[in-house]
Specification:
The chain is of the alpha/beta class. 34% of the residues lie in helices and 21% in strands. The protein has nine helices and nine strands. It has helices spanning 16-24, 44-50, 66-76, 96-105, 156-162, 173-184, 209-225, 231-239, 242-246; strands spanning 3-9, 31-37, 56-60, 81-84, 89-91, 111-119, 127-131, 153-155, 189-200. The longest helix is centred in the last third of the chain and has 17 residues, at 209-225. The relative contact order is 0.17.
Length: 257
C-alpha cells in the first residue's frame, strides 16, 4: 500500500531537513513525500531537492496559503492513503507508516490517527504538551473532540468523495474538514494509542491574539455548519487543551528521532 505524505512549505530552511529525514527514516517501503513549496525566498527547495530521493517530489509555486498548498499536494498524490507532515513536525518513530498501513490493509477503516506531542521549538526532545486523543465516538464531537490533525491518515477516496480543505477557512480549515468527514461522511476511524508525530509549538493559529480570535470564530462557524452545537462546543474544545499541559507521560515505546 503506497502512502503519500503531503508537506506544505514556505521559508522553512531551519526545520525542513529534519522533517524530511524523519520521513525517509520510515521503514514502510512504498511511500512518497509531496513537497508543495509556496515560492520560498530561502533554501527550502534546495534542501528538499538535495536529498535526491526518488521518494520525494518537490513543486514550487505561489499559493493562497497552507490549505491551498495541501489541496495541491493531495491532487498530486499517488498513494492509496494520504497523510501530512508539516515542516516543523517529525514522525515520532520509524514505524509510523508501516503501522498505519497494517491497519488499512486489515480492511474496513477510512482513517487512522494517533497521539501527538507538542515539543519546544528549539529542542524537539522537550515535551510541552501531550495530546492523548483516545478512541473516537461520534458523541465526542459535541464535547469539542477532534483527532490530532497531523496524525490523521485517510484513504484517498475520502478526498475524492467528500472534498479536501475549504480555503475559505484561513486557520481552521482542518477542523472544518474533520467535522465534514466525520459528521457528513460518517467515517470509520482506527486509533493507534501511541505518539505518531512530534509538533513544534508556535504554529500558524497561535502566533498572535488576532489569529487566536480568528481561529475561534472559524471554529464556531465550522461547529454550526455541521450542526454539532454552538459556543458550548467551542468552549469545551478549548478547555480540553488544559489537560494536555498537565501530562508529561509519553507513549511507552515512543522513539523520538
Amino acid at each position: 500500500m503506497k502512502i503519500s505524505i503531503i508537506m506544505a512549505a514556505y521559508n522553512s530552511q531551519a526545520t525542513i531537513g529534519r522533517a524530511i529525514g524523519s520521513f525517509l527514516a520510515q521503514d514502510h517501503p512504498d511511500k512518497e513525500l509531496v513537497v508543495i513549496d509556496g515560492a520560498s525566498h530561502d533554501d527550502t527547495c534546495a534542501i528538499a531537492k538535495g536529498f535526491d530521493s526518488p521518494a520525494i517530489k518537490v513543486f514550487s509555486e505561489r499559493d493562497e496559503g497552507i490549505y491551498d498548498a495541501l489541496n495541491k499536494g493531495i491532487a498530486r498524490a499517488e498513494g492509496a492513503v494520504v497523510g501530512l507532515l508539516h515542516t516543523d513536525d517529525l514522525f515520532a518513530r520509524h514505524d509510523v507508516l508501516s503501522r498505519v498501513a497494517r491497519i488499512f490493509d486489515s480492511g474496513g477503516m477510512d482513517g487512522v490517527y494517533g497521539d501527538l506531542e507538542y515539543v519546544a521549538r528549539t529542542n524537539p526532545d522537550r515535551v510541552i504538551r501531550y495530546w492523548r486523543s483516545g478512541a473516537y465516538r461520534p458523541a465526542l464531537l459535541r464535547k469539542g473532540w477532534m483527532p490530532p490533525h497531523p496524525t490523521l491518515f485517510l484513504r484517498r477516496e475520502v478526498f475524492d468523495k467528500h472534498d479536501a480543505y475549504d480555503t475559505g477557512f484561513r486557520i481552521a480549515a482542518d477542523y472544518e474538514a474533520i467535522l465534514r468527514w466525520l459528521v457528513r461522511a460518517e467515517l470509520d476511524l482506527a486509533y493507534i494509542p501511541d505518539v505518531l508525530v512530534r509538533m513544534r509549538v508556535g504554529g500558524e493559529s497561535n502566533r498572535s491574539l488576532g489569529r487566536i480570535l480568528r481561529k475561534s470564530r472559524e471554529d464556531l462557524c465550522a461547529i454550526r455548519r455541521h450542526g454539532i452545537g454552538g459556543i458550548g462546543v467551542l468552549a469545551a474544545k478549548n478547555v480540553g487543551k488544559v489537560s494536555q499541559f498537565m501530562r508529561r507521560d509519553r507513549g511507552k515505546d515512543v522513539q523520538a528521532r
